[in-house]
């Protein structure tokens, strides 16, 4: 499966808009910072046609294991960033060819 990095996205927007690359990078970084700050404040971010980012509470566990060391530990309840794709994105991905292993 193909991996696209932040650099690749910035380069693509730069090529498609012909804006200065520095400006594209600043806007992109600002957008990511705004998404991060909104999630940190507990807000849900809805990008119509694309999807929704939201903070989601994960239950803690009394019995957990560090897979690297095997040590047993407890994990308190904590928030994670969750993404739900919008209908347009779901429809766009529906007919992707399935890669056979």
Fold and architecture overview:
A hairpin with a 6-residue loop joins strand 3 (61-65) and strand 4 (72-75). With 101 residues, the protein is of the alpha+beta class. The protein has 2 domains: 1-43, no CATH class; 44-100, HU Protein, Chain A, CATH 4.10.520.10. 40% of the residues lie in helices and 28% in strands. A 3-stranded antiparallel β-sheet has the order 1-2-5. A two-stranded antiparallel ribbon has the order 3-4. Helix 1 crosses helix 2. The chain is extended. The model has no long low-confidence stretch (mean pLDDT 92). The chain has helices at 6-17, 21-40, 87-94, and strands spanning 45-47, 51-58, 61-65, 72-75, 78-85. It starts with 5 loop residues before the first helix and ends in a 7-residue tail after the last helix.
